[in-house]
Protein 1
Amino acid sequence: MLKNFTSNFLLSPIDLEKIHSALYFLHIEELKNICEEFNLDLKGNKVAFINRIFIFLKEGKKIKSIEIPPASKAAKNQEYPFSADTLILHGNYKNDYATRDFLKSLIGNHFHYTAYGIDWIKKRWEEGNPPTYLEFANYWQKEFENRKKNGLILISHKNLKRIILRPIVKCYLMHGKKNMTRQKSSSMTY
């Protein structure tokens, strides 16, 4: 197993959360480039790339693409109106203004898209158990309160890229790649 990349660079859980949030503001081509540099799987969508990069930075593990089961996929040419009981299905859900406005009506004006919210929905899809909008609203509010109570402070997305993610990737490219190469020549397994 690769040695934990983050332990080599002393990233705190809060730094990891900031990096995870910052990844969502990168373009898909930037994410693919990072995956290439880390020799990670290049299949999937933006969320898949983000999860692969984050898990690699956090745990040093390389994960493969995961298929979404049919129970979590939207049927083609079918309408899914916004209601508390409507399932959030892969292929139909969008992080757009209409969805945000609907979620604000369930949660409140403090709602905003978050990495932890997207990850939770994706996890439910992968399990074949897509959530309803109400289940998501309840989860999001509870998680928001927990993070607020524990002092996880959000910084603007504009600064996340500049101050968190790019220096980490640059550091890896300058130093980590050599360290990873040395580890490969020993008896490490991936």
Note: The CA atoms of residues 44 and 65 lie 7 Å apart.
Protein 2
Amino acid sequence: MYCLTNGTVPDAPSPGPPFREIPAIPMNKPLQLLVLSACLIAVIPRLLSMPFEWNLSALGALALLCGATVQPRWLALLIPLGCRFLTDCWLEARTGHGFYNSMLFDYAAYGLICLLGCSVGRVGPLGSLLSGIGSAILFFVVSNFGVWMLASDHYYARDLSGLLNCYTAAVPFARGTFLGDIAFSLIFFGLLNYLPGLQTRSAVSEEPAMETPGASES
């Protein structure tokens, strides 16, 4: 807002774009290191020869962290999806089971988790716990809905009972997902909140405040 100075009206500012994207956090070195470490933690279990029943995953926690901290939004979404895609390619080349018909539902679930992170932002221990539980539930519901939708009628009936049977059959494989998403959400956000240099301010760089036209310099 401009004010009158000495009874004169200041010149109108030159026209510019109606909106200007301001990143939500400064991507300083500590934060970059945290996001990179979270990527490695999310990727390594998928590269190891772990029993399929464990299904240990930190990708949901990574998507949650990126949604809460990384700007622009497309980058926050690209990081977890990129980690998932690269490990899918590795698994496909190594085992032949990296790609499957319902995998796009998994990617959609990570996108929704990233949006959840955008909405909750920086949270404390309780918020981290609830967000981790929410992300695990979200992935479970969306991914297994895709399994039910794309599976043949031989496996699951095309009705509510078939959907419930699909979810019931998936419960034993969800333990690692729930454990990983909840535990790593607590770890990632705990580091974000308590390690020096990890801050989530509303701009990457501090800009000087706009001076009122006509005001004297101090």
Note: Residues 125-150 form the longest helix (26 residues).
